Structure formats: structure tokens, C-alpha cells
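Team,

Forwarding the record for the chain on the shared tracking sheet. I've put the sequence and predicted structure together so nobody has to dig through attachments.
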Amino acid sequence: MNTVGKRMWLLMSITLFLYVPHVAAWSDCGQGKGDPYGMRLPDKLHPTEGIYLDQLDDGETLRLGAFNIQIFGKSKATKPEVMEVLGKIIRTYDIVAIQEIRDKSQTALPALTDVVNANSSAPYDYIVSKRLGRTSSKEQYAYIYNNQIVELTGTPHTYPEPNGTDPFHREPYIASFRVLDGNFDATLIAIHTDPDEATEEINALDDVVRYAQSTHPDENDFIVMGDLNADCTYFDEDSNSTMHSRGYYWCISNSVDTTTKPTDCTYDRIILTNPAVSDFTGDAGVFRFDVEYTLNVSETTAVSDHYPVYAEFRCDRDADSDPSPEVVRAVIALRIAVGSREYDPEPDINGDGRVTSLDALMILQAAAV
């Protein structure tokens, strides 16, 4: 089959994919973790996200995420009912990035890990950053992970800000993991931006990713995760941020509310570099622990003012594939044509004010010339 024929075949396959109901059942790398409150497939495609025709295949998955536990320290650690809920939440993850640990005594996190392990058939471990912050109020990041499912690789560390700069109130915490039964690995970047400087800090995250790429040259998958304060009065989620560039995909869409209080803000995010998209199952969202554990409002807010966010990845397919630009543009055109993406004039090749499958075909035909 020649190049044009292959492209046409791929386009027809993608068209069929777009019309097939998105029903999937993914198993897990470790213990079972069900959650009916997430998104099976992203509602928006990033301009450089590819569509993979085996998106619906069964396969073992890794569940990772981020959780701002809201002023987690000695006081919260003395509340058994809160710690029990936190332990249940963390056991739904294989790796979870924790933010807003405020504990000079350094006892709250070990106590939480003990609660997690007290009711777990698999042991969890943790790594924790140094205490960070420009003021006397310091915070730490931590990764709590199931060490029968994943292992830490390399040396975790905070982002070394270039000399003469101070872009972050709390420097991001970088750590790499790989699954023990499979080939998925990734470098994670945990961040809790300062609300008053959220826009500036989010824009500076691209530099952090580039730094991580330079220090992990053999890795292609980088995942930024945490409380970015990426919505409402702190950040324009539709802005031309550096993290909205062609190199990234946002798993947590703007329509998701990640707060437990009566607000509607998507503060917490998981952002992938493009190569990681091929390993992403399409399942991401918030974990509504209040619904899952039948908590009332006061019980819920005692745990946190944030819901944890999650995304799932295939354990056995670290393909790092990168579709050609013309195929990506054709996929975007088809998404617009079937109504799953808003109109964009860029793929409107014939300039008739609408995007149809004809535009998609014209994109591939032009690329084949």
C-alpha cells in the first residue's frame, strides 16, 4: 500500500473509531480500583494528541494522581476518622502526589502511611521533599506509592531554580517511577502554585519540564501534577499559557470541579508531554470520595477542600509514538465534524465556514503531494 493509501486507510479507521461508543473495561497492574466518577475519554483533543486505534483494548493500568490534603499536619493526623478516609483514598492509587504537608514535627506523613498500610494487602512507601516556601509557613510534597506495583528510579529532588531567579514559591518536586510488571515509566513533577502568582508559576512549568528532560534524556514521558490553582480568579484556563503549547495535553478538562466546597473551579490538574498520551487510557477525573464513602459536607471538608485527581496509564505499552502532523490535523477535523470539538477555522481547508470529513481528506491529500 502506498503512502496515500495508508493515510486514507488510517483516516477511515479513525472515522469509524469516532463513531463507536466509547465503552472500555481496563484491568489494573495491582489491586482492583473502580471509580464511576471519572471521564472515560477526554472531551477535548490537544492539537498534537494522536488517536490510537487500540484505545479500547483491555490492558493492565496504573492509576496515578495528585491530592492537596489542605494543611496536613499534626492536628489533622490526630483525627482518626479523617485519617481513615485519607487512607482509603490513597489506597485507590498506585502513585499519588501529596501537596500541602505542613508539619515541622515530620510525624504526620509517617502516621498517614501507617494508616494506609494497616488496611492494605500491599505495602505503600513514600518519599518527601524538603520543607519549601519563601515565608515561615513551609510546605512539603510527597509521593506515596505501592511498592509492589512500582519502584522509584533515580534520585528525587526539587527543581533547582536558575541562579538569580525565583519563579516558584515552592519549587516543584521531581521523581521517576517505573512499573515492576510492565514497561511503563515516567518522570513526575509535583507542584502547588502560589494562588497570587499562579499564572506566572504555571508559565514557568515549561522550564521545569525542559530541565527534567535534560536530566532524564532516556525518558519521554513527563507528567506535571498537583494543585496548580489553574482556574477562577487565579488563572485564565483559556489563556495562551506555555503549558497550553503544542507539546502538552491536559488530562483534567476545564469542566471538572476539583473543589469540595461550593465553588466550581478546576484548580488541580494532570498535564502530559505528548509522548505520554499514547500510554494514557483516556480515564481521568476527580475521585469523589464524599460520594464513594457517603460523607456529609462537614465530614468531607474535614478531609480537604480539594478532591484528588487521577489519570490511568497502560502498564505494558510504553510506545512513545508520535503521529505525523497531517494525521493529527485530520483527526482534529473529524472531531469537529462529528461535534466532539468546537469549530476551529484552522482545519477549514476549503474555507466554507464549517469543518467536515472532506476537509480531513484534503489535509491528507495535500500532505501526500
